[in-house]
Amino acid sequence: MTEDTIAAVATALGEGSIAVVRVSGPEAVEKIAPLFRSRLDLREAPTHTVNYGWIEDPADGAVLDEVLVTVMRGPRSFTAEDVVEISTHGGIVAVQSVLELVLRSGIRIAEPGEFTKRAFLNGRIDLAQAEAVIDLIRSKSNRAFQLARRQSEGALSKRIAPLRQKLLELLAHVEVNIDYPEHDVAEMTAAAIAETCGIALQEVRMLLKTAAEGKILREGIVTAIVGRPNAGKSSLLNALAHDNKAIVTDIPGTTRDIVEESVSLAGVPLRLLDTAGIRETSDVVERIGVERSRGALNEADLILLVLNHHEPLHEDERLLMKELAGRPAIAVVNKIDLPGALDLEEVKREIPEERIVFLSAKEGEGIDRLEQAVSKLFFSGGVESDDLTYVSNARHISLLHLAAKSLEDAIAASEAGIPIDLIQIDLTTAWEQLGEIIGDAVGESLLDQIFSQFCLGK
Ligand code: GDP
Ligand code: ZN
C-alpha cells in the first residue's frame, strides 16, 4: 500500500525556541528538497544526517528561516517511511510559515496520531507500544514517564506474546485431536487443557493486579488535604512542592474552569482536589468546613488529615476521623517542632498507627515519612521495583478481563467433561482477546479511535 506524504508540527506549539516540522512518506525528500537551500541537494543527503541551510519559498526566493534538516530514510525511521524533520528556530510564526510552505508543495497535513499510526501499520511498533506513546506525551510524573517508556519499548507485548504462543500450541494439539481422533500420540486430555489454561490465567491475573498501580502512576492519586484552619495544610502543600522538587503545575481544566494542582511524592503525582484557592489564606477546605469536605472526601483516592500537634483535638477533627474510617487516609500530625497538646491516644483509637505520620511542615522535617506511608498505602510491592510492566491502559485492562473470563470458561468446561471441540472455542477467544492488546486483527474503526487520541504531529 503506497501512502501519501504527510506533515505536521511535531513539537508543542508556543513552547521552546525550537520547533520541528515533521514530514513522512514516499515523497518527503523529493518535495522538501526544492524548498531547502543549502550546500548540497537534499536528495543527495545520506540517510540519518543533519543538514544546515535555509527554507526558501521557491516562488519568490524569500527566506523563511534558518534551519537544520534531518533526513531519515525508511525503514530506519519512526514511521518506517522516509522522514524529513525541519528544525526551525524562529518561534511560532516561523514554524507556521514553514509548515504552510510545505503544505503548499502538495504534502497533506497529518491527522492527530497519524505518524504513530503509520509506525504501527508499517510494523515498526505494536499497538500496545503505540498507545504507550500517547501515555508518554501525557505522563505527569517521572515514574509514569518511565512506565510509558518501558511499555513503548514493548514490555507488555513481551509478556503477552509468550502467553499467546502457549495457547496457540494448546490449540494446535486440540486441533490434531479433533481432526485425527485415532491419533494416540498427542492425546489432549481435559486435565492438560485445564493445566495450561490455569498457567495462562495466572499470568493474566498477575498483569491485572498491576493495573491499579499503573493507573495511579499514570493518572496520579486524587488527594484531598483536610483539616482545621491553621493546622498547616497550606504549609504541607508548600513543603511537598519544595522538598520533592515537585512539579507544581497549573493545568487549566478542559471542561470546567478550574485549576488543578499536582505535586510529586515518591515519584507519584498527587493531584490535589479542588485546590484553586489552596495557596491563598482562605483554603477551600477551610471555607467549606467539615460538612462540605465530605464531597471531596468521597472523590479522593487519598485523604491527608492534617492535625495540629500543638493543640488539643477539636470536635470537628473527631468528626473527620470518624468519616475517615475505612478510607485510604493518613493522619498528618503537624508542628512537631512545637510542644505537644494533642491527645495521641485518641487519634490512635480512630486511625491505625502505621497511618499516622509526624512531621513539621514548617521545618520540612518528616516529609520522607509521609512519602513512605503513601507508598505503602498504594504500592504493595513497592514502587522502586525495576519491573515496571504495569498495565495502565483501560483498553488493555478490559481485554485482560475478557481473556481471564474465557480461560476460566475453558477450565470449567474441561473439568465438566465438555467435548474439547467446544472448549476450543473458549481457547480461540482467549487467544484473540490477548491478540487485540498488541493489535493483532483489530478493526479499522478501533485503530482510528486509538490514534485520534494523539496530539497533532505525533
Ligand atoms: P492552614 O490554615 O491549615 O492552611 O495552615 P497554614 O499552613 O496556613 O499554617 C498556619 C500557621 O501555622 C502558619 O503561621 C504556619 O507558619 C504555621 N505552621 C504550619 N506548619 C507548621 C509547623 O510545622 N511548625 C510550626 N511551628 N508552625 C507551623
Ligand atoms: Zn491554608
UniProtKB/TrEMBL annotation:
Any matching Pfam family: MnmE_helical
A single GO BP: tRNA methylation
UniProt: K(+) binding residues: 230, 249, 251, 254
Cofactor: K(+)
GO cellular component: cytosol
Residues that coordinate or bind GTP: 230-235, 249-255, 274-277
Comment on bound cofactor: Binds 1 potassium ion per subunit.
Top-level class of the enzyme under EC nomenclature: hydrolase
Record function comment: Exhibits a very high intrinsic GTPase hydrolysis rate. Involved in the addition of a carboxymethylaminomethyl (cmnm) group at the wobble position (U34) of certain tRNAs, forming tRNA-cmnm(5)s(2)U34.
Protein's name in the database: tRNA modification GTPase MnmE
Organism (species): Cohnella zeiphila
